[in-house]
Automatic annotation (TrEMBL), chains A, B:
The keyword Transcription regulation applies. The lineage of its organism: Bacteria, Bacillati, Bacillota, Bacilli, Bacillales. One of its GO terms (molecular function) is DNA binding. This is LysR family transcriptional regulator. Residues 1-58 form the HTH lysR-type domain. Belongs to the LysR transcriptional regulatory family. Gene3D superfamilies: 3.40.190.290, Winged helix-like DNA-binding domain superfamily/Winged helix DNA-binding domain. One of its GO terms (cellular component) is cytosol. Signal peptide: none annotated. Pfam families: HTH_1, LysR_substrate.
Length: 291, 291
DNA sequence: ATAGCGCAGTTGCCGAATATCCATTTTGAA
DNA sequence: TTCAAAATGGATATTCGGCAACTGCGCTAT
């Protein structure tokens, strides 16, 4: 018994005549009659009573009819749902973000939602390195992380650059708006990221390029705590610009780092290179490219 | 897209290899590959990713898989449910009863329930004439009513005969156990049924056969009220035996009617003659015949 | 009352579409 | 390069739908 036969049966029940049902199905009546007989044989019981002007549905027939409606409807829904998922109109976008503070990212989501209103989301916040692992494990499809990225099995879409700022407690003497790495060097630094990752690596790079060693106190991946520690003059730090925008109101001094254009962090959207993305994710990438 | 293809797809997803799925489906690998392509074409999106040792299911594919499981399962359930209804193991028995007091009828239901535990019931109590109409309108399949029946488009299964009793208030002088119609004649009678129906008709018949006219006060289809009226010596009445068993404790005299064997009422099971009964109803008839 | 007519459904047969198989080629991974 | 898995091509078999003829039933008209 297949879907086609169910459709036939539905037509027969609703038209209450085989010939009328055949007309509705755009076919001739003999094959319809045969299919009905085939179903009755397969199910081992009469489905309709052929007597009188209109045929009557038996109890078994009406049971089948009810279920047939359900099945065919489910089938239609399935088809359109799969097609929608295939076209990215429906489905789930699983994405990890490290720095949600990237300017305009909420706006991008808003745009995406407007264009694809039936997409649901799974947004995870975590460290860049962990997000990479999640992408690799196919737990999430996309991730917005801090670059650079040590591995090359990812496709990367560079989103934006941003300068780094040197921050200290208000207790310290003020500089002008800018400060050089050489001037920073004596300050004990608390890094805003884990060793081996993007920001960490970038800062060390910049120092080593001018043959200096920063004074490292340690690292702290909790930004609020880091800013509290800086406020308390526990240490100074170097943080990306968006972070300052995001955590305003701390009594700290912030100075743009001058003398080198290299100390800028970038944020990028990554996904697994040789793996097919869901259409929803593809659409998301496309949209973010055009903004 | 039909059920067969859904089964194919389920096998492919679960085996994660087309060739393995083909083996499980007892078919060769090429047609399965083709069917998969056909589905992908019809749905307009890739369903699996053919790369690596095992193929991977895309989001659209997993959507389809989930629904396919549901549909195929629903299909199986439908098939077995319809087959059960066809065999009378399942379904609804719709029956009307006039005199539920018929000896052993509850026992019959109990037996039936034991034999066919998944049957549900719709039991209606009403006048015999109304039950006939309900059977004719196909609102109920069976009815247990008082005979005789004026119409012949029903099949009838005679269930039992029972004698009639003459009942009066205790105020009246006692007879011996029996009484003849001739003795009854002068008593004003309140009939326990509506004019033109079984009991009514039977009593008049018996009188006319011995060329007598009973003294008719009227009729009352509410048995409790009728017995109350007899108790109050409003009138006497003639009622079938089971009715006395059912309504005991009324201060009345009851006398078996002697002299004629004709004044007995029967109870019968009826159903529409030229119409197919549900298997459940057929089973019920069969069971009641063997008791 | 019976013959005849028409409608609805069934049966039988044929042609076309399509599902399956086998053999082979292509692809991708180790 | 080799091997396994999937895709392709061609042949065959199943089956599905259409057409024509037959049956069964109810209605009408003579």
């Amino acid at each position: 018994m297949d879907i086609r036969q169910l459709r036939y049966f539905i037509a027969i029940v609703e038209e209450r005549k085989i010939s009328a049902a055949a007309k509705r199905l755009h076919m001739s009546q003999p094959p319809l009659s045969q299919q009905l007989q085939a179903m009755e044989k397969e199910l081992g019981s009469k489905l309709v009573e052929r007597s009188g002007k209109y045929l009557e549905v038996t109890e078994a027939g009406s049971t089948l009819y009810k279920n047939a409606l359900e099945i065919t409807q489910l089938m239609e829904e399935t088809k359109s749902e799969v097609m929608e998922v295939g076209r990215g109109l429906n489905g789930k976008l699983t994405i990890g973000v490290n720095t949600f503070s990237v300017n305009g990212l909420p706006k991008v989501f808003k745009h995406f939602q407007k264009k694809y209103p039936n997409i649901t989301y799974k947004i995870q916040q975590n460290e860049s390195s962990h997000l990479c692992q999640l992408v690799r494990d196919r737990m999430i499809e996309l991730a917005i992380i801090r670059l650079p990225l040590p591995l090359d099995d990812f496709s990367v879409l560079h989103l934006c650059n941003e300068p780094f700022y040197f921050i200290t407690s208000k207790d310290h003497p003020s500089f002008n708006e800018e400060i050089s790495l050489t001037e920073i060097q004596p300050y004990p630094l608390l890094f805003p990221s884990t060793e081996g990752l993007g920001v960490h690596y970038l800062i060390l790079e910049a120092f080593s390029r001018i043959k200096l060693q920063p004074t490292i106190v340690g690292e702290c991946s909790d930004i609020s705590l880091l800013l509290d520690l800086v406020t308390a003059d526990f240490a100074a730090s170097i943080v990306p610009e968006t972070l300052l925008h995001r955590f305003q109101g701390y009594p700290i001094n912030a100075y743009r780092i001058s003398g080198t254009t290299d100390l800028t962090g970038s944020v990028g959207l990554i996904w697994l290179k040789d793996h097919s993305l869901s259409k929803a994710a593809q659409n998301f990438i496309e949209l973010i490219q055009n903004v």
